[in-house]
């Protein structure tokens, strides 16, 4: 077996060194009734490296993917471009095969990259501090709700119905075993009606969670929410699903958000059928000791040189145990390095261009819609809801688009099961070019 | 002689400032595809008033910056990494290659099912294999990491007890040697933990366990082999006792590497087990993630698994999103699919004919290291170990040397230190897990280093130990300063 | 370190100085030494009512974290805000500048359980 360095002779010699004669002696402490007969598992026999490549290539060929189609799918995951440099950097064994940097002297590379990541995320979201990432956006949202309970010592959570339904479901699930109300505010439209959300806030409210741009891609003014949160001493939590938006639009921090959470997958991380992605978590400095997850901090070494360590670890489970701020142990370390590399390559100018192109593609799409398809009104970033005359008309369009190798969008009922099946959530990124939009519109016309 | 004996050298390492300190204007924005042109006036009203202040470097500068940072790291590819309970084994390169195939890397999680049959097939196959290897009836792939798997497992246990009408059962028993995540996960499920004091041999003490088994018990959370590296020989009786008391047994699979292909936790009576694929199945740790923590369940807990789930019907795969009994959803997608591609490739490489060699060589290596070191380092629990061995600094203490000094000295000799000060049940713990992918030559070299350190203690030649490390780009870092006045972002 | 004779101690290693109806809380020199370098002290809000024995704050060192419990009950009237930026005062001067909060005593029943410095030293030696 090529991953195992020992020869049979090595094994025998080593067994002898420890005073044993056969491998099974090493397992003598396991009751014999629990010994599995070696080679009796229902697994195929091992493959050669060439065999593995063949197997996965064959499986991959059975999939269609964003690279060989025109992909208008969003809903939390987006097909942005991943520069070669990003993949190269995270493929380096020193980043790829290192553990969590608990021995900081020999993990300064990971740690400085985390510090740079935290800095850039804080700047992009307009917040004072960031942690070194969470699993992904839905769990980050749930963790924000839990953090707000700790900060405010209150237990009521208000969440807008225009937050990604999956973030809502996970957050509700996390909170369901704890005391306190969980209030979902229905919107009745494809956008966010802040007045409805604000009406639900009371003095018992620990936090209010909105999404910006919201699940339907709608962008709106968050200012009234800040005022309402001040009035009731509750935390303002802003979620997002495509961090690229903040290359262009005002950051949640500029509106005074207390906690900002969302998906950083856009920052150089492939969609990979749902993960590994990147959960962004940023907050105001005054709350940092209640912030979940790992954080990297600046310090000095024994010679007085600048260096970095994981810090505030007393909040973590291995010391605080049941009183820990969160049960999380792992972050998405390598994805932070990817995001840091990506942001460095792009800079302000690149991030602005990506956001601009992503939004411009959506504008172009909406401007070309035939009259029987209606897009949600108001300001949108790179995602919107298209409404068709009927479920049949929509499905005919989806099918026609598929024939042309276009993933036209996500049927909204996949997220909101009670909604009439005539809506489609469509998203654009800088990977969508004018001819992609034209092809989508052409399919719409053929299917009508 | 001794300086050449180990791999560490003081080779050139380049200083590299923070990227924010590279003092020049960013170059022209890179050429990006897409629809050019201004955005709609509706959206333009929301434009950022000031840029985020992300500096931006040219491509050559970016590469050099991050390559220099990478050279400050120790990874498995750099050298031996015997971090106990972390299973730092070689991460096969072919796994990286196949995970990057466009047909796997660029698949959107909401593509129609008929367009992702290849992906679903690989995930479903892995699900089945993990269930088979661990000895359970089914597996959920949704948990994103071990601690997340723990949460999922406890949620299922909660739901199962509720379904039995036993809402009152809230006590979770956790051995004092357990991983720290356990109590935090229980608290999130509205349950509380009670610590079980380990017996004199570091194992679960049956009498102590019996004392705590009453009508309030929801579960026992255990790790087997435990974090002292020894097998819980009473496992059958332990599970029986907990079940008789009306509770369930949760297994932390952090140490599954000791058992792969040799014994199956599911056969021993556990109700579920989370599997750290970034440990046992070689997916890269990445400097702290991504991981994945699938949970294997028996028939008792199967109805409560999270959704979405992959279902197979006549070779066609689909995704089930609704189920009355399910604990619901705990992630925005099906799971960390990219991580699972690598795990699938790892198991594919071993297969039925070789998979037991993982546990065999892992346990052989740990016992080999133990046998070489036990004459000079105190072994708190005598006997056979499994995939990791536990030592303490008790004998070095009398020379004023602590575990931390030993760990830092290892760095100067070219090794990543072992896990230190864990488990908490012994003082000055050093937990060494060599894994199956290390050669005898590497193990010998590591043991020589450990013996040399012990000899230095005996000789009273301890200054190098207290000063260590001297060779890395940074020496011991001031953690107190970092925690007192936290600086988490660059404000220069 | 010399222990001021007007202090009383709890088994959780807190000290209390009672002057009229005001009580000042802190942690003992032994406690600060056991915890190591303190990095953070989480203080309660002024005006909060605390029962005797209730956890009123949290102290953190690099490696450990611990709740602090009220030796007597009362309303918080003053907090040592300096500790928010200089937690190490607890290390350097546990019985002086490292005091944590002051309360207006409302529940002094626990007084009987408190130890004087000699008893506390004995307790530590046991």
Question: Care to give the gist of this entry?
Answer:
With 492 residues, chain B is of the alpha/beta class. In chain B, 35% of the residues lie in helices and 10% in strands. The mean pLDDT of chain B is 94.
SSE arrangement:
The complex is a heterotrimer of chains A (448), B (492) and C (126).
Chain A: H1 8-17, H2 49-61, E1 70-71, H3 84-91, H4 93-96, H5 108-125, E2 129-130, H6 137-152, E3 156-160, H7 165-175, E4 182-185, H8 194-199, E5 205-211, H9 223-232, E6 235-240, E7 259-263, E8 279-283, E9 295-300, E10 306-311, H10 317-320, H11 333-367, E11 374-375, E12 383-387, H12 391-403, E13 406-407, E14 410-411, E15 423-427, H13 434-447
Parallel strand pairs in A: 1-13, 3-4, 3-5, 5-6, 6-7
Antiparallel strand pairs in A: 2-8, 7-8, 9-10, 11-12, 12-15, 14-15
Helix pairs in contact in A: 3-11, 5-11, 6-7, 12-13
Chain B: H1 2-5, H2 41-44, H3 59-70, H4 93-99, H5 102-105, H6 117-134, E1 138-140, H7 146-163, E2 171-175, H8 181-188, E3 192-196, H9 206-212, E4 217-223, H10 235-244, E5 248-252, E6 272-274, E7 295-297, E8 309-313, E9 316-320, H11 337-354, H12 356-373, E10 389-392, H13 394-397, H14 403-412, E11 419-420, E12 429-432, H15 440-458, H16 463-467, H17 479-484
Parallel strand pairs in B: 2-3, 2-4, 4-5, 5-6
Antiparallel strand pairs in B: 1-7, 6-7, 8-9, 10-12, 11-12
Chain C: E1 7-9, E2 14-19, E3 22-27, H1 29-35, E4 38-42, E5 49-50, E6 55-61, E7 65-69, E8 73-79, H2 82-85, H3 89-92, E9 101-107, H4 117-125
Antiparallel strand pairs in C: 1-2, 2-3, 3-9, 4-6, 5-8, 6-7, 8-9
Write a structural description.
- The complex is a heterotrimer of chains A (448), B (492) and C (126).
- By secondary structure, chain A is α/β, with parallel strands linked by helices.
- Chain A has helices spanning 8-17, 49-61, 84-91, 93-96, 108-125, 137-152, 165-175, 194-199, 223-232, 317-320, 333-367, 391-403, 434-447; strands at 70-71, 129-130, 156-160, 182-185, 205-211, 235-240, 259-263, 279-283, 295-300, 306-311, 374-375, 383-387, 406-407, 410-411, 423-427.
- In chain A, the strands form 4 sheets. Chain A has a 7-stranded mixed β-sheet with strand order 2-8-7-6-5-3-4, sandwiched between helices.
- The termini of chain A are far apart.
- Chain B is α/β, with parallel strands linked by helices and 492 residues long.
- In chain B, strand 4, helix 10 and strand 5 (248-252) form a beta-alpha-beta unit.
- Chain B has 2 domains: 107-354, 3-Layer(aba) Sandwich (Aspartate Aminotransferase, domain 2), CATH 3.40.640; 357-480, Aspartate Aminotransferase, domain 1 (Alpha-Beta Complex), CATH 3.90.1150.10.
- In chain B, helix 7 (146-163) crosses helix 8 (181-188) and helix 12 packs parallel to helix 15.
- In chain C, the strands form 2 sheets. Chain C has a 6-stranded antiparallel β-sheet. A 3-stranded antiparallel β-sheet of chain C has the order 4-6-7.
- Chain C is α+β, with helices and mostly antiparallel strands.
- The chains are: A alpha/beta (448), B alpha/beta (492), C alpha+beta (126).
- The interface between A and B is large, with 214 and 198 residues.
């Amino acid at each position: 077996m090529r991953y195992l360095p020992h020869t049979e002779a090595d094994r025998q010699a080593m067994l002898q060194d420890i005073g044993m004669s056969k491998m099974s002696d090493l397992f003598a402490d396991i009751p014999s009734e629990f010994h599995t007969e070696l080679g009796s598992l229902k697994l195929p026999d091992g493959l050669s490296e060439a065999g593995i490549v063949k197997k996965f290539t064959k499986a991959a060929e059975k999939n269609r993917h964003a690279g060989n189609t025109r992909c208008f799918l969003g809903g939390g995951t987006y097909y942005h471009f991943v520069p070669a440099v990003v993949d190269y950097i995270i493929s380096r064994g020193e980043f790829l095969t290192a553990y969590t940097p608990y021995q900081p002297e020999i993990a300064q590379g990971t740690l400085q990259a985390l510090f740079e990541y935290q800095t850039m995320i804080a700047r992009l979201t307009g917040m004072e501090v960031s942690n070194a990432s969470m699993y992904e956006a839905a769990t980050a949202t749930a963790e924000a709700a839990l953090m707000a309970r700790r900060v405010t010592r209150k237990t009521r959570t208000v969440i807008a119905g225009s937050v990604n339904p999956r973030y809502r479901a996970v957050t509700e699930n996390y909170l369901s075993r704890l005391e306190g109300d969980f209030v979902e505010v229905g919107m009745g439209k494809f956008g966010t009606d802040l007045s409805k959300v604000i009406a639900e806030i009371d003095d018992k409210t620990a936090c209010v969670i909105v999404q910006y741009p919201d699940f339907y891609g709608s962008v709106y003014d968050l200012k009234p929410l800040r005022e309402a949160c001040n009035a009731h001493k509750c935390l303002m939590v802003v979620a997002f699903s495509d961090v690229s938006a903040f290359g262009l639009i005002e950051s949640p921090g500029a509106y005074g958000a207390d906690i900002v959470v969302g998906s950083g997958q856009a920052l150089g991380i492939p969609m990979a059928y749902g993960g590994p992605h990147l959960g962004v978590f940023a907050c105001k400095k005054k709350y940092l000791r209640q912030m979940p997850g790992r954080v990297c901090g600046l310090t000095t070494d024994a010679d007085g040189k600048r260096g970095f360590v994981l810090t505030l670890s007393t909040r973590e489970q291995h010391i605080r145990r049941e009183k820990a701020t969160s049960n999380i142990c792992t972050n998405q370390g390598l994805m932070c390095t990817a995001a840091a590399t990506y942001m460095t390559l792009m800079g302000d100018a690149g991030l602005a261009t990506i956001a601009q192109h992503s939004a411009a593609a959506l504008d172009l799409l909406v401007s070309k819609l035939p009259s029987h398809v209606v897009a949600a009104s108001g300001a949108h970033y790179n995602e919107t809801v298209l409404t068709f005359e009927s479920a049949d008309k929509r499905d005919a369009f989806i099918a026609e688009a598929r024939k042309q190798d276009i993933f036209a969008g996500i049927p909204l009922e996949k997220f909101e099961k009670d909604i009439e099946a005539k809506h489609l959530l469509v998203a654009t990124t800088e990977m969508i070019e004018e001819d992609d939009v034209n092809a989508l519109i052409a399919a719409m016309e053929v299917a009508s | 002689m001794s300086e050449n004996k180990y791999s560490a050298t003081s080779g050139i390492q380049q200083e590299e400032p923070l990227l924010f300190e590279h003092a020049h204007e960013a170059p022209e924005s890179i050429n990006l595809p897409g629809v050019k042109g201004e955005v709609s006036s509706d959206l333009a009203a929301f434009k950022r008033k000031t840029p985020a202040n992300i500096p931006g470097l040219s491509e050559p500068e970016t590469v050099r910056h991050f390559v220099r940072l990478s050279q400050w790291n120790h990874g498995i590819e750099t050298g031996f990494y015997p971090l106990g309970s972390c299973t730092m084994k070689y991460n096969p390169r072919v796994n990286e290659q196949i995970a990057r195939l466009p047909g796997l890397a660029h698949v959107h999680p909401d593509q129609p099912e008929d367009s992702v049959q290849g992906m679903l097939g690989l995930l479903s196959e892995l699900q089945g294999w993990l269930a088979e290897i661990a000895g359970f009836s089914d597996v959920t792939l949704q948990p994103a990491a071990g601690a997340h798997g723990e949460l999922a497992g406890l949620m299922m246990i909660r739901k199962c007890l509720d379904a039995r009408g036993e809402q009152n059962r809230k006590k979770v028993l956790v051995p004092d040697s357990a991983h720290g995540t356990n109590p935090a996960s229980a608290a999130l499920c509205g349950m509380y933990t009670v610590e079980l004091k380990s017996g004199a041999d570091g194992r679960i003490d049956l009498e102590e366990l019996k004392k705590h088994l009453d009508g309030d018990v929801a579960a026992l959370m255990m790790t087997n082999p435990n974090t002292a590296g020894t097998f819980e020989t009473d496992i059958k009786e332990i599970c029986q006792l907990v079940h008789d008391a009306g509770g369930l047994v949760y297994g932390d699979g952090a140490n599954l590497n000791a058992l792969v292909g040799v014994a199956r936790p599911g056969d021993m009576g556990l109700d579920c087990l989370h599997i750290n694929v970034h440990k046992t199945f070689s997916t890269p740790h990445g400097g702290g993630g991504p991981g994945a923590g699938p949970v294997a369940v028996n028939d008792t807990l199967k109805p409560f698994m999270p959704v979405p789930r992959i279902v197979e019907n006549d070779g066609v795969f689909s995704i089930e999103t609704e189920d009355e009994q399910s604990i619901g959803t705990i992630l925005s997608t099906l799971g960390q699919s990219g991580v699972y591609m690598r795990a699938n490739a790892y198991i594919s490489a071993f297969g039925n004919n070789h998979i037991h060699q993982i546990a065999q060589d892992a346990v052989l290596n740990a016992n080999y290291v133990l046998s070489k070191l036990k004459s000079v380092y105190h072994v708190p629990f005598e006997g056979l170990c499994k995939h990791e061995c536990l030592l303490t600094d008790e004998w070095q203490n009398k020379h004023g040397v602590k575990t931390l000094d030993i760990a830092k000295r290892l760095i100067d000799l070219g090794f990543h230190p072992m896990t230190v000060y864990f488990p908490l049940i012994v003082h000055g713990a050093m937990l060494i897990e060599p894994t199956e992918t290390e050669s005898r030559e590497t193990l010998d070299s590591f043991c020589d280093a450990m013996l040399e350190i012990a000899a230095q203690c005996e000789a009273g030649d301890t200054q190098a130990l207290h000063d260590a490390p001297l060779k890395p780009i940074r020496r011991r870092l001031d953690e107190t300063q970092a925690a007192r006045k936290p600086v988490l972002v660059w404000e220069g | 370190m010399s222990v001021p004779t007007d202090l009383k101690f709890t088994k959780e290693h807190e000290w209390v100085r009672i002057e009229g109806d005001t009580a000042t809380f802190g942690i003992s020199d032994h406690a600060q030494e056991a915890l190591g370098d303190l990095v953070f002290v989480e203080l309660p809000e002024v005006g909060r009512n605390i029962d005797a024995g209730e956890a009123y704050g949290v102290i953190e060192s690099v490696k450990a974290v611990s709740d602090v419990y009220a030796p007597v009950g009362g309303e918080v009237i003053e907090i040592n805000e300096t500790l928010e930026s200089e937690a190490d005062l607890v290390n350097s001067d546990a019985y002086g500048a490292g005091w944590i909060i002051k309360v207006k005593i409302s529940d002094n029943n626990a007084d009987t359980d408190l130890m004087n410095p000699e008893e506390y030293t004995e307790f530590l030696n046991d």
